[in-house]
Amino acid sequence: MIRADVGVAIVPQTISRHLADANLKSKRPFHALPLTPEHRQLLLQWCQARSMWNVTDWQKVVFSDESRFVWGTDDNRVWVWRRPDER
């Protein structure tokens, strides 16, 4: 889009250099808010209630917030440019 707007060929490194000159850093966008004290207390209570579970009990649980694993080089994540003090 930039090439079409300005009418000249611009390589990605030029854009990155200008963004860095403006004190902008490449980061992943912020997706979740930190846990509140109330959420931490509820999580602790949940864990304590299940502290005596055995393997059979845990095999019945599905966690939906597990980490991502990428086999290839592209994980399709979006990166944004922000100043160091911005979220």
Automatic annotation (TrEMBL):
InterPro entries: RNaseH_sf. One of its GO terms (molecular function) is nucleic acid binding. This is Transposable element Tcb2 transposase. The lineage of its organism: Eukaryota, Metazoa, Ecdysozoa, Arthropoda, Chelicerata.
